[in-house]
Fold this protein.
Amino acid sequence: MSGVDIARPRSLRSTRLRAAGRSATLLIGLAILGFWIVCALFGNRITPMDPYADDLLATLDPPSFVHWFGTDQLGRDIFSRVIIGARDILTVAPLATLLGTVLGTALGLVVGYYRGTVDDIASRVIEAVQALPLVIVALVALAAVGTSNLTVVIVIGFVFTPLIARTVRSAVQIESSLDYVAAAHLRGERTLSIMFVEILPNVLPLVLVEATVRFGYAIFFVASLSFIGFGIQPPSADWGIAISENYSLIGSYWWTVVFDALATTSLVIGVNLVADGIQSSLQA
Amino acid sequence: MSASGDVPIADALAIENLDVVYRVRGRDRTVLKRLNLRIGRGQSYGLVGESGSGKSTAALTAVRYLPRNGRVTGGRILVDGRDLMKLSQAKLRLLRTQSVSMVYQDPGRALNPSLRIGRQMSEVFEAALGLAHADALLRAADMLAKVQIPNPARVMANFPHELSGGMQQRVVIAMALSTNPTLLILDEPTTGLDATVEAEVLDLIARLRVDLSASILFISHSLPVIARMCDRIGVLYAGELVEEGPASMVLKDPRHPYTAALLRCAPRQGRRKQDGRLTTIPGFPPSPGAMVDCCIFADRCVLAAALCRQRTPPPVDLYGRSSRCHYTELVADIPHSEANVQPAATGPTRLDRPVLRARQLSKTYQVGGKNLRAVHDVTLDLWPGETLGLVGESGSGKSSIAKLLLGLVSPDAGSSIELDGVALPARALQRSQAQLKALQIVFQNPGSALNPSHSVRRLIGRGLARAGLRATEREEALQALARAVRLSSQHLEEKPRALSGGLKQRVAIARAFAGGPKVVVCDEPTSALDVSVQAAILNLLVDLQAEQHVSYIFISHDLRVVYYLSDRIAVLYLGRLMEIGSAAGVFSGPNHPYTEALLSAHSSAGDGARPRIRLEGEIPSAADLPAGCVFQTRCPRKIGLICEQEEPELMEVEEGHSIRCHIPFEELRSLQLKDSAGRNVPDPNTAANLRLEEPPLGLS
Amino acid sequence: MILRFLAKRLALSLITLWILSLIVFLGGQLLPGDVGRAVLGPLADARAVAHFNHEMGVDRPLIVQYGSWITHSLQGDFGLSYTYRTPVAPFIADALVNSLKLAAMAFILVVPLGLLGGVWAALRVGTWTDRAIALLGQSLGVVPEFISSIVLILIFGVWLRWLPMSADWPDDSGPITQIYYLLLPSLPLVLIFFGYIARIARAGTIEALDADYTRTAVLKGLPWSIVLRRHVLRNALLPAITVIASLIGYLAGGLVIIETMFHYRGIGSLIYTAAKAKDFPMLEAAVLAVGAIYAIASLGADLLNALLNPRLRTGEAA
């Protein structure tokens, strides 16, 4: 049996299926992301109860009609906290992504364009940073400078910079070897103009894909860091904090953890569906 | 030759009313429409067509290996009398082991990069024919010897990347012939190979055909190659077979306007720009899948009449050949457009001084600790209005010279370039705006030469803006430039990706001419284009030269194109200038043995009548040059030790004609005269002769 | 040829490690400013802070500190822990051994699974099966480890009670018991890496299936099993080696969270506690160890690649 022959009878169906799937992933992803953005922006108007109000008479209540998702150790309404919990992560993660994308793109352009010594040095540094898992780099940096939303943004942004720069760099290298760049040289264009007017527009689609993928990772890391106490800090209703405060209780009070976990999961998957959708629509 | 069930020996391949579609973005695009062809036993059938004509799809369909999105929607394919589409997987595999083999373009990718050649060869005998490993290895070595691989044992121990392109293609051919197939499909087997290597591979295929009695389906974009290799020809246009018949008849006396135009638009041997313009085919082929209820060629046809736009012409039977044209009888009388137009070309002027002088141009790269001499001591003059052709095989340094002249790479110390008598800075970055404007380039691949993010208007306009024009003047200049390269104002707003290859190249030419250049380097400007598009671009270059008296450095591997365009020609080998002189002088000889070999390789792909000398061995690496004359390892006229010890000087042998060879000029003359006289007896290897030996199957 | 390639590769790894040591040193010694204050807290007596700083040598010039740190580190002496006031090296060694056990467990499970899933999807490219595997792998790959850990603990530890919820096995446990205790902690890693490996295997297989050499093999009339084994998979799975090696780097990041959650004394939980306590010598040494492991892994991957890829083995050292 040959692989091609196996695939052939299904080709008709499968191509259509894939085309549909592509747009479907993007739409579902956008819907999920959109939902959480709305929660982050208008959470205080949506929540049925005050997410920060203790109620010591109703601690650790299971889900009910009053408390849809139950209450936590202090009797706070988990449903309200889950909704409002989107706020910090959806502030920190996008800002970190933006910082990393801007710095990384600029660095990648310069390094990819100049090659030579600049490139060699930058590549070594990039590789050195890459040798460490992001969580560990972030841990070291945050242990040193102290944790706040701002430092988390800066640390993740800086950690992303070399990673994005590496992707942009290789794309820029391919572009600069193309004849249109030589043609620009022969027209007497300035270096900056070649970098930003000639090359940048052709790597922008890639930067967009890279940025959405990184956004997914940013959420992953912010959540993880918050969980281990190096990210968003209490009293925020952040999901990672909630999970870390309650996960020793999952044996008896599963609701204190499960809904926050579901929220985090839906957000990372949503962002990744968007990234995937953008990537395949740009490739098509 | 009518093959149906009751004839004992079936045709090697019979394709009947074949329709093939590709599904692209949810829609079916027809790639082949009602294709009919028949290849008798021992026959060699050439399928010729431009890119997008569906010729490769035809080949893949004939072995039932369409891409995932392709499928057969109608018709039958009979290989050896068996209906291909109805075979079970097991039977299909059996058919592939016994009856049909395929060789295609780019042998480097056709071989598994991680297996030794021996393994890849022997598995055919083991898995397909059930031989034991030891026997299979013996048979593999035999087969490699048959395709004239000098040292089969060594090659079998090699990995594909250790072999040259020509060697790889021999291995693929050997593999295809291992099972002694009834039908051998060759899909552009020599495209991408150097001319001398191509000639060798074609010779080999011709010889093997006699030995092995396989029928051949030969697919190519090149009419000369098809003409050399095939008994019968089919001309494919936009998925339809517009004309087919015996090779000699179709080529000498085409009965379809497309075939006629295709034959005329490539510069014929010995034709010069002074002789007149080339025939072009106006317009573009229909996009695949555009179903039309009329003649598919009508939009581009000089004969097109009302009838052509109303009814699809059926294949008209013309005694053993056929043509899908309503007016087959008029085709022979289509006027040669070139005869009506005044030759545009003017000659160079040698008044004052050359517009461009390069002295001792050298470029050495450091690769893996070794010196790679891409260009060595090349001295060139270019006169105003002149075209200097640069020819040579890959690795000869043609493109490196272009880059050096333009300042895209910096030359070794001691090199100098002068423009109008003024020394040019080595790098483009250091050159003044005026110097940059004066020296421009048209790249080989218009796809990568145009920034995909910018509109055509911007691509051309940017050059004008840099030339220091104000907005209104600029718009006028832009329009004038667009007119000059025959771009419509509608094209100006497009992005390059919306344009065809030919249009893109026009944009690139317009960009090069935006600053009023004195010298334009044309680096294989038509080699990525179809033949019908190439003619229009060449005409355009000639016209622009006549109007603006610009000088060209024209780089090409196609000797006929170079000869058509050039006033003088420089022949390069391994970065060295081997010969330079007037186009006529270099072509008619006496010439350098390397030039002689190039010319002979080229003509062998055509009429097969010229004397032939064959190059042995492979091009040495530029990082590891042979001692003495760099050509001595392959030179068919090597005279002895002196060639191995001493590098000959480039010496002027007659006025304006220099050759780098130890053999004295007069001796070269007599050697080459003698050979051409001696070889007038038909070479047993040429296709012309093969054709005589075999019964004209297609006619019976 | 191959020796020169390896020598070059080794030199590059060493440079990378050196730069890494600089970064780590700067992170650990420069950023915190007053180390004694950071460690002892804002309420500590100024004399105690000065004494601490002097004892730990952090009141010397930076260059001197780096010089002494790096020369000692090269001899296996990573200094004294701020927390325990004892040498750091033994902690690191114990933790590494434990983490390697956990990592090995995860890799033994995930590598075959990922490769199989990827190849299987590629052979059914464009179908629902393919789409499902791709989507599953991709989604699992982006869910943070702490979430998948919780879900797994809930399922296997709380509800089904099949596996222990802590990796802290009894002191005199044999290998089998240890594996039993490591099963649950390794699963989150398996989930997160499955997608990566499957994706690479799938892409490589599709590329190989579409390659001209596969066409050659099919048209030779070889049986499909030979085409698949000898021609498709051999070329398809080569790129997976590099990816698997690079996962070893990511792995350590996951370990920080997983080891903390499962009370496992590996390098990850060591880094976590050191970071919490601002025990910078410990942190630096542990991080450098992780970097070294990564460098060794990618060196090993390059070596393996060079051995399996004839182009690197015999050809031009690119």
Summary: The mean pLDDT of chain A is 84. Chain A touches chain C through 59 residues (CB under 8 Å). Residues 63 and 148 of chain A are 33 Å apart (CA to CA). The longest helix of chain A spans residues 3-46.
